[in-house]
Amino acid sequence: MNSSQNTTSSGSAVSGLTRSPTSPRTLFGIVMTGLCYLCAALALLPLLAVLSYVTIQGLSRFSPSLFLELPPPPMVPGGGFGNAIVGTLIVVGIATLLSVPFGIMAAVYLNEFASDTQLAYWIRFATNVLSGVPSIIVGVFAYGVVVLATGTFSAWAGGFALSILMLPIIVRATEESLKLVPAEIRQAALGIGSTNFQMVAFVVLPAAMPAIVTGTTLAIARAAGETAPLLFTALFAQFWPASLSAPTPSLAVLVYNFATSPFKNQQELAWAASLVLVFLVLITSAVARWATARKVY
After folding, report:
1. Which of 145, 202, 235, 277 is most buried as measured by Cβ atoms within 10 A of its Cβ?
2. What is the pTM for the complete model shown?
């Protein structure tokens, strides 16, 4: 008798916990879930629209010759932008060599040696301000510092401008990745007799390397798509890059020049270059996601 009563009471309790599908709370949850899916779809819509439109326009002109030939004159069929691809790799490579060492060392100093000092506070503040500076202002600054000083547009000037844009991204990403390394790892390294330098160089940095690679690839992706700084520094050239101290072509500037051209063959080339540039950014983003998938420690 008692067991049947317990069963009946437990069954009634379970049925009492079951929410009616027409209750206000259930309907509110369904509506909010639908709104979340709708907002997620709206957030993806611009990306899908850009990718689909650039792909449709760029594939019509896509061919292997694009990577091997030089840009054509107006109204001349054929040609490519192999020089712009090489120039982009050169300029972004210079920017990476300039920004990555300084960015990582600055982040190590901020997180490992001066995390709570007044100097670290002002360095972080300056880094945040620098990340919000418009890229065209950085280009004008590099023009005044490098181009006017050397008397010529060059890959060095373009790399210098892009390195300024990359630096705050690398500093912030590296500092955040270093914070993810547990304090126990640092204490264990110091406990076996390591110096602070050995602890940071051989224990902390290798543990945080996946996240550091992520921040670096994201910075490279941003630098590869910048146009305004290169207009003031590297400019453009119709030929293959022959010197780091001469005007250097790039994909972003080629898209800017040819997209505004009145000639159809150059407009088609601009769409194909846009497609290549988008896929370069997607590849670097995929590398960043792959690096993030690995554990930091």
Report:
1. 277
2. 0.82
